[in-house]
């Protein structure tokens, strides 16, 4: 358990460092540059990198995991040190931010799956693996919520360069923890064959998954989620600007906190709702609620602070319920032998438009010189999906997911 504790602390440290980099640089761009499109470019870059995570598997499989963790964390130290140096010189520009944050997000995208790969080799008892995974996930989610508000608060009381200097120390702690981590040697396969098979298996799974989800009823469930994610990405990209309107970085932290906390609450209450409410009622009500909330934000954000924050929190709870409803649906509907392939397809399709949503939302805000249209469009799309799910005959026939006929 000592090695698990080291790994957990290392993960917590890297998570803190990653969050500080992303949130502070997002806020820096929002504060320094008037045009919202620069935030859109940032969201687009991050979204594209996250879509390319599938190709990271061969790297993790082919090389020493400990070496990967050490190299990726060391690169993060260099990035933060360089950022801090530029901030002290007052010479940080957009191109530098985009390049450095791209490398940082790429390192994070390597570190997290690498850490997950270590767990089975450290935890010998298979019954304990799920418990350890649960602790890691809960720690990750709760820490994210805490960090969102804390970083916003810190930005309000200390200088950005001071916060970046602290981040260097945090990554050094993570590097030390990974350095003293004792990872058992894994069973070695033919590395070339293994790395090649990861990518080929992904595309094979994607093809088979697409073949399954091409069925009309499943497309009616999946495509609306892709559409709402596109609109939602265009809404959240202007959260820093909303924080500025409310009064500063502390409010930006509160916005991120309420957004994350709402989703978490949604996950907690969703199982009871799924068990007690018919599926054909849940979907329309969820989208109606999201629509009302985002239209409410669009109307009220310039008048006061509390009401739009309440709307955001309620919308996030509903979004958490929606996410769990769809996760459950696509765990029950596909045959057991197709679960992995269908999930691969779903994750790809759902995430595909998110980078473009961020870009669209930022361009929209700049074109009309207001962020109200971003909120309004999320509400409008949600109302459209409410009407669709209320009137579609196939969806209205679904009372219970376990008895669905596709």
From TrEMBL:
<keyword id="KW-1133">Transmembrane helix</keyword>
<feature type="transmembrane region" description="Helical">
    <location>
        <begin position="95"/>
        <end position="114"/>
    </location>
</feature>
<feature type="transmembrane region" description="Helical">
    <location>
        <begin position="348"/>
        <end position="365"/>
    </location>
</feature>
<dbReference type="Pfam" id="PF07690">
    <property type="entry name" value="MFS_1"/>
</dbReference>
<feature type="transmembrane region" description="Helical">
    <location>
        <begin position="67"/>
        <end position="89"/>
    </location>
</feature>
<dbReference type="InterPro" id="IPR011701">
    <property type="entry name" value="MFS"/>
</dbReference>
<dbReference type="InterPro" id="IPR036259">
    <property type="entry name" value="MFS_trans_sf"/>
</dbReference>
<dbReference type="GO" id="GO:0022857">
    <property type="term" value="F:transmembrane transporter activity"/>
</dbReference>
<keyword id="KW-0472">Membrane</keyword>
<feature type="transmembrane region" description="Helical">
    <location>
        <begin position="217"/>
        <end position="239"/>
    </location>
</feature>
<protein>
    <submittedName>
        <fullName>MFS transporter</fullName>
    </submittedName>
</protein>
<feature type="transmembrane region" description="Helical">
    <location>
        <begin position="307"/>
        <end position="327"/>
    </location>
</feature>
<feature type="transmembrane region" description="Helical">
    <location>
        <begin position="166"/>
        <end position="184"/>
    </location>
</feature>
<feature type="transmembrane region" description="Helical">
    <location>
        <begin position="12"/>
        <end position="30"/>
    </location>
</feature>
<feature type="transmembrane region" description="Helical">
    <location>
        <begin position="251"/>
        <end position="269"/>
    </location>
</feature>
<feature type="transmembrane region" description="Helical">
    <location>
        <begin position="135"/>
        <end position="160"/>
    </location>
</feature>
<feature type="transmembrane region" description="Helical">
    <location>
        <begin position="281"/>
        <end position="301"/>
    </location>
</feature>
<dbReference type="GO" id="GO:0005886">
    <property type="term" value="C:plasma membrane"/>
</dbReference>
<feature type="transmembrane region" description="Helical">
    <location>
        <begin position="371"/>
        <end position="389"/>
    </location>
</feature>
<keyword id="KW-0812">Transmembrane</keyword>
<keyword id="KW-1003">Cell membrane</keyword>
<feature type="transmembrane region" description="Helical">
    <location>
        <begin position="36"/>
        <end position="60"/>
    </location>
</feature>
